[in-house]
User: What shape does this take?
Amino acid sequence: MATFLYRLGRLAFRRRHLVALIWLALLTLAGVGAASAPTAGNTSFSIPGTEAQKAFDLLEQRFPGASADGATARVVFKAPSGEKMTDAGNKATVEKTVEELSGGSEVASVADPYTGRAVSRDGTIAYASVRYKVSGMELEDSSRTALKEAAQHARDAGLTVEIGGDALQTAPQTGASEVIGIAVAAVVLVITFGSLLAAGLPLLTALIGVGIGVSTITALAHTLDLGSTTSILATMIGLAVGIDYALFIVSRYRAELAEGREREEAAGRAVGTAGSAVVFAGLTVVIALVGLSVVNIPMLTKMGLAAAGTVVIAVLIALTMIPALLGHAGRKVKPAGATSGPLRRGRPARQPGRPNMGTRWASFVVRRPVAVLLLGVLGLGAAAIPAASLELGLPDDGSQPVSTTQRRAYDLLSEGFGPGFNGPLMVVVDARDSADPEASFTKVTDEIKGLEDVVTVTEAQPNEAGDTATVTVVPDSKPSSTTTEDLVHAIRGAGGDIEAKTDAKVLVTGSTAMNIDVSQKLNDALLPYLALVVGLAFLLLIVVFRSILVPLKAALGFLLSVLAALGAVVAVFQWGWLSGLMHVEETGPVMSMMPIFMVGVVFGLAMDYEVFLVTRMREAYVHGEKPGQAVVTGFRHGARVVTAAAVIMIAVFSGFIGSSESMVKMIGFGLAIAVFFDAFIVRMAIVPAVLALLGRRAWWLPGWLERALPDVDVEGTGLRTEQPRHADPDERRELVRA
Assistant: This one.
């Protein structure tokens, strides 16, 4: 591996014009493809295998044209103080609004509040239900605009009007957070390299890689039914790993220059050593992202595959375009420890032989491994304690900021009709196999009325064939509460008894039931996903490190950091600690996707740091250093780079904490704190402490396994057979002066 990549790096350095031209041509081709591709709508959302999805599919068959899974909107009206919605003027305004809402091409039906008994008991609040022919993710912008304009016209007439439901659901917008991440990354890279040019290379290549990846996704979006959300994860991960991988190789290149090698040789050796670590680090990220397909949620699978493709592009660019650009830069990229231009002025030169901070820290850990290990494990263990009370769910309009119309509509409906009115359940009764369908429908409604936490049960509404009916159930508790979840399970339990007696099947659906089913599906998939990702990566790391204990330590450390991060998420978003600082307006269950996201994304990124840092240690050990000294050597060369990479990653994720969307805010905080725990506590403290305690045993591998494993030579032992090429006298003098 190292020898092949060494030759690839030297080839890219020599043929730098051709390599740069190829990547620019690919970027242009992808951009043209994205610009000329048909506009893709939002991808359809389905959750195969869940009861809620089965009910939606059944409704499509038995109630054709009813748009069972279509978007819904509730336009909520509140009368001015001292007035009622039944007053003539207010009633006329509402009826005019209903007529205006009915005109949209995607509107399936609009329910008048006065004919549908949708006026509160005190007469101050009413609502009109709008159902669309397509889902919220597929709704055209023109339909959303018409909905907002109709509400505004009613406001102009003097009513308080707010809009709830999923009709206003839009894809999360990106842009500002990425700019923040790039700005912080630029500052960190300049500090790390002490050179504007060297700092610019990782940024440039990362942006090119993300540009190719996202443009390709856009070009294929219509053909492959990729929604606008598919590129979000690809952008976030592609930008982060693209900067990191380029950072690793540029840093190693400068280290090779500092040892006196000529530039082409330094580029080859940088790609052969750091590039090997990049390849295997990229493979772990790809495994984690592709593994998202085991959850069997099509949208999540597409996001994972798209992000994995962007990571592959980032790896290829780091291996080829970085050495090509280093060739173009020539002597403007200085050896490690040197600065150039304005950054050099006023900076005292480092004293020769003085150890850097990474060396001093590693030496301390090697001297006090037990104390450092205990402190790190106990600290992360304490942070993980809140995870024991983790409650999972999906956000509803009640978790939106109070500044949004969805949240204000939610609060008005709760005020006028009770909190459960925001999450009604739709019960579908399939009586095709029943001898007496009407009796089955009556039996279902009677059974549900006898359950706890039920406020209202409507009469069964059969289809034209009379073999299927829908029943609407309004709970007493809010949609995201555990009480409502218990009610859904109670209805399904009662349905089993009803089927045994009447042969009629009872299915529960609606947005609330769908959220509950999605949460359960993600819960059930977590352990298989964790086993698949960690298992495959464990095998991969055995090949990389040729050790059993080092990969085991890496996996256990990762699990500890993820548990600690989940504990922090629970403390902030569920318990409300520091909620004011984080601008968390509503605490509640943690988003169901958080554990899956944290396992997938953080595992891949954590293995980046593990591979880069520990391969440096193994390289030193294989080349004859004692285990303790190898740990120090690994930190001397890798700690600064890993620290910079982690800070960049944290900055990218932290940019999302400022989002007004609670889900985006939670993802940003969770990923940022997880990277902090893993990079600075696990990789920087626990890992060297464990390796110091294990000594030579850390690199032990059974003989039979040693013979069976392929020799990928990540540490670059094979490069010793390559004829070393040192700088010529003129360049050596230039390197010394630098």
